[in-house]
Amino acid sequence: MFELDLRSRKPIYEQLVEKLKVLIISEVLKTDEQLPSVRVLSTQLTINPNTIQKAYRELERQGYIYSLPGKGNFVARVTRDGNTERLAKLREELVKILSEAIYLGMKKEDIIKIISEVDVMVRGGEK
Amino acid sequence: MFELDLRSRKPIYEQLVEKLKVLIISEVLKTDEQLPSVRVLSTQLTINPNTIQKAYRELERQGYIYSLPGKGNFVARVTRDGNTERLAKLREELVKILSEAIYLGMKKEDIIKIISEVDVMVRGGEK
Amino acid sequence: MFELDLRSRKPIYEQLVEKLKVLIISEVLKTDEQLPSVRVLSTQLTINPNTIQKAYRELERQGYIYSLPGKGNFVARVTRDGNTERLAKLREELVKILSEAIYLGMKKEDIIKIISEVDVMVRGGEK
Amino acid sequence: MFELDLRSRKPIYEQLVEKLKVLIISEVLKTDEQLPSVRVLSTQLTINPNTIQKAYRELERQGYIYSLPGKGNFVARVTRDGNTERLAKLREELVKILSEAIYLGMKKEDIIKIISEVDVMVRGGEK
DNA sequence: GTGGTCTAGACCACC
DNA sequence: GTGGTCTAGACCACG
After folding, report:
1. pTM score of the predicted model
2. Domain span holding position C43
3. Is residue C59, in this structure, part of any structural domain at all?
4. Quick check: B70 CB within 7 A of strand E?
5. D71 and D100: one domain?
6. Are D93 and C15 in contact (CB under 8 A)?
């Protein structure tokens, strides 16, 4: 289900957060669907339960999931507002990465192509 | 000259690397121009010299500057090859950020506008 | 375990890098084996932890080891490609040293004998 | 006459020492021949005279040249003994470099070919 | 317990 | 004056 790189410099819990975000964004995991329990995921991935917990808490903080104590963790509905803060941060990151990419020779057309691909992937599920 | 967030989770030397990259990319600092000396920057920013050193060595590793021991640190000429690896990494990051941005409601047109702005900023200096 | 010359002009961390390379090359330290922790080595050699760190990071940069933050440093698998650059540098050094050695009277047969010894030492572990 | 890399990490005086050694070893500069004066070389290379001086002193220390105060610097006769110390050091370096080269995949035959080339270059002048 | 980062301050080689 | 190295010792994130 997941491929985590235990040798990566990036913390495992962050990798988990990213992977789960992808699943949510691409709507493999749908709104209100239950995520695998900490214990199950922990044994499946042979990873410390604390690490899973930390990832779930982080996703909750970012509004991607919500937790019902005693029940489990569930995918949250996307709120298209209240994200201005996060969007500002993303925009900033975007500028940084784009600057470097263009400086190193990536072409504008290549970038636009990437955008289109991502756009299809993300919004493809909606109508 | 710089605004560093000493409280950020992101290491100071990484922040410095990013800030300096921006200056180089936007050609505020030009090829072969000398960067402020480790000690000068250290006192200006009230940051330990070792931290500045680390940032400079990282920039050198990435090919953005070169160092002449006993002379100083200087902006390197851009090499348009040998960047394929770095570009692949940037592309990957790009996909990740774009996914999330689009998911959270950023519009394709907005993104393209950002690209154009960055493109002008970076390539504006060239002819 | 190591004999470092603290008075040498050669930086301690470079000496460490060389010593560790020998251990890795001669397969005293085997692939994926854990290296002594920064702190342990630091107290064993009565050398500052930062210096050990620097040596480890240099070895990582050269592809001899990899680091798992929070876990330790481990011997990397040898990659037989991507070394062309390094090999070119080594070849250059070789020519320089051989020139001087032959000029000072070292005989071709002696050198070939040395090669054979090294060859056995390095490739002896393989089949 | 010389190509010095002012951008190299290696000190300029060391580069000079190496270049001059090559000229002496390959007998472009012959025994008792006079080396260019510090002043001349200094202006030719647009390099600080102190740096040239340092290189000459180093070559003298290693027995490659001798200096007649008020006259100049001259190529010394090779002494085929008294070099045991230097030869031991070279041998040690040789082992180190060969180990790494072989470890990284350089073949024994390649190395022997290099030796032959160098041997011809160095001893070619003699009969 | 592990590596990663940072500070404060020192000494050295180079030019 | 410049970068390069090193020490002594601290704090933090990670698992």
Report:
1. 0.86
2. 12-75
3. yes
4. yes
5. no
6. no
